[in-house]
Structures are given as structure tokens and as C-alpha cells.
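The freezer alarm interrupted the setup, so I double-checked each line after restarting. Inputs confirmed:
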Amino acid sequence: MPKKERKIAATRRLFEGEVRPHLDALYSTALRLTRSPVDAEDLVQDTLVRAYRFYDRFEAGTNFKAWLLRIQMNAFVNRYRRAARERQVFDGPMAAPVGEGVMSRSTMRGLTDPVGDAQRQIIAREISRAFEELSDDARAMVLLADVEELSYKEIAEVIGCPIGTVMSRLHRARKQLQSSLRHHAVQLGIVDTDEDEVDDPVSLEAFRSRKAVKP
Amino acid sequence: MSCKLVRRHLGAFVDGELDPATQIEFERHLEACPGCQEHLAFEGSFRMQTRDSVGRVQAPEHLWERTLRRLDEIDQAKAEHASWVEVRPMRWRHAWPIAAAAAAILIIGGVVGLPKRSDYQSAGMLQDVVNLHTQALPSDVQGEAPGEVVRYFQGKTPFPVRPAQFEEPSVKLVGARYITVGTRPAAALYYIHNGRRITLLVFQSPDIVRNAQRTHVGGREVYYHDVGGNVVTIRQHGGLSYAFFGDLDRPMLFQLAANARVAY
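Predicted 3D structure, all chains:
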């Protein structure tokens, strides 16, 4: 085999070995984002072709899965082009306010310790339904943080935004998910209707600076 | 530290994303505050329930196979690019010096040029062109007589179809059939050149060249697209697109597209 072809074959083996363990992660994320198995397969294949073409640009020592997910997220945004509009609704002035303590104690207890498998299954189904109601951006946040367990820094790189934005978007996404779940849970009678204690957001920076001036 | 503050940043606390000093402050508060402990327990269990509900699904087995086939195509194209640069111009120089120069430029363009992002619709149509050639569907009308092919397409396609003619006498028309590219009606014309198949698709789609690369070969404008390492060459005339694809090497495909007589 000529030298050039040996080199191609070696790169290919390396790439396959690195990618294969992440195929399920890519497919799951693609499926949750596109909501269609056919689109998800196309998106994953497109992602891997791009990743292969730009494989030499991957920085060794960084998180390969995060790198793949970044390529996939870009491909998803390019292909569907809905993200820009939705982001505005999600982050911008039109964004619905999210309270801090959206649940009462009894609701939390009901959801934290479901009684029996049946109720556990109902809650799982309701979370799944609530998840489907989230925007593309919010779903991406929950998937990257809670399912793929990426760090905030990695998520910031995947999405292409500052870490502070990841923090606030992720918080918002989780609260939206929780309040949607609570809504369903109340309707199903899993938990009682409860009074919300809606609080103002509290800044961690303010806390740190208050502490800093103390003697 | 207030309960409000702790609850607002409980997510980041569970994620382990607070700075170490704040993390310790949080732990201290949580130890002493049963209310926040309940929030913490909920946050943790909710995280697990979310993971279970919307967690991983297995990728279908054929997805990996399908992806590997695409990577094979890329590897093949990489290897071919390399060998052309080394070998091909020699053979071409002998017969057609001008064509060889043109081919060399095209090859170098193919090697260093980054793939352009074409929009998905035209990418899909181009993939169709390649697939239709690969599938080699049987002809509906056979033989070398262009007149019969013209008659066959009358009433089938919304445009008159005339088979392209080539300067090279070795290129022979062998058949044709009606087909669709994307959702557009098209004429598939089959040719043979020294035992190798060439498929020419004729259809109406001005979009197909929008993201195409463009070059001039022998004074004729030829568009081309890279489709997974294969090249599809395109000529446009009279509102029709003529897409050429075949079991030929790249320079020959450009040569044929440039030499094809599509205007009458």
C-alpha cells in the first residue's frame, strides 16, 4: 500500500475507534432535538462526515464527545434554522418569567419519592412530555447537562455562548421543565394543587460582593 | 447566606460548578437547613428522573454501517486525489496538452478547495443523480437512435428532451428512461464510453448550480459539485440542467461535459 493510503487508513482507524463509543450519545441527542428518527439519522451521519473532514482540527486532550456535539449542534441549527427565533423567545424580552420556588414542599415530596412503580412510571412519562414542550434551546441545555453530563464550560463551547449564559439558560430550562411537570402532576392528581412562592432571582455576585466588604 | 440564594443556585451546586469557597458555604447552610435539604433532595431526584425519561437511546445498527460507507467514499476520494496529482497528468499530456493543463488545475482545485456548503435541497438532488447512476435502472427505450429517444419523452417530461451528442466517437447512446430527481421529472440518458457507463440527467432546476463551483473547459462553462468525493458536472442550456455522472475519472467527466452538444 502506498504511503498516502496507509496514512488515510491509519487516520480512519483512529477516528472510528474514537467515534464509536459516542454514537448512542449523538443519536439520542439528535433524536430529542429533531423529534424524528429519520432526521436524527441524517443529522448524525452529517455530523460524522463533517467531524471526519475536520478531524485534524480536533485538539487532543479536550473532550471528544463535546467536540462532536458541537459539530452536531451547528449542523442542527444550520439545517433547521429555527434556533435564532426560539432563542429570542427563550432568553429575550418575550421570555416568560420563571419563579424560583415553583413548587411547594408537598409537591416536591410527592415527586421526589413517588409511591410505587406505577406512579414512578407516570412521572417518567410526564417528564418526557414536559420535555417535548420545551424549546430547542431548552431541550439542548437539559440534554447536554443532565443526560450527557457535560461541564458548563463544555456546554458553553458546544452552544457557543459564555458560561454565565449557560448557567442562566440551564436554570431556566430546568425550572420550565419542573413547572410543566408540576402542572401535569396536579392535573393527574399525583400531587395537590399548591401555592407558588414566587421569588425574585437572587444574584450570586451580589452575595459574593456583600461578603467581600465584611471585615 | 439566605435560603433564597441557596435555592436559586442549587442546580449549579449539584452540578459541582460553584467555586470552592461558595461550595463550602452552601454545604454549611444545607447542613443546618431542613427546608433547603428538601429542595436539594428534589433537585437530585429530579435530575435522575429526567435522565431516565429522556436519557440515552441506542443508535440503530444500520446507522453506523451507513456512516462507514460514507467515510469509505471520502477515503477513496482522498486516495484518488493523491494518485491523480502524481500520475494522471502524464497520460493526459500525451494526447491532449490543453486538456491536461485544464485537468491539473481542476484537480488542484479539488484538493485544496474546501467543500462548499450547498443547500440541502440541491445536495439531495445531486445525491439522487449519483444514486440513479449507481442503481442503473433499466432503459425504457433502447438503442442508438436519438429520434426514438426524443419521441419516447414527448408528453412525459414538461420539456423536450434531446440526447446530448459528443465529439468523442467512442461515446455511444445506449438507452433512456423517465425518472425523477428530487420531485422533478427528469430524463435519464445512458451512454457507454469504452465499456464504462455514463448517466446524463436532464431536468429543470436552476437551483442546482446555485452553490456549484464553476470552471471553463475548452471555452464552455461547466459547473460541478462534489458529492461525497464524486464529481457531478453540470451544463446549463435553455433553462435545462444537464448533469453528467459516470464511471470515469474526473478529468474525463469534465471533458465530456464540456464537449457535449446540448444545443441544437
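Quick read of the result. DSSP finds eleven helices and no strands in chain A.
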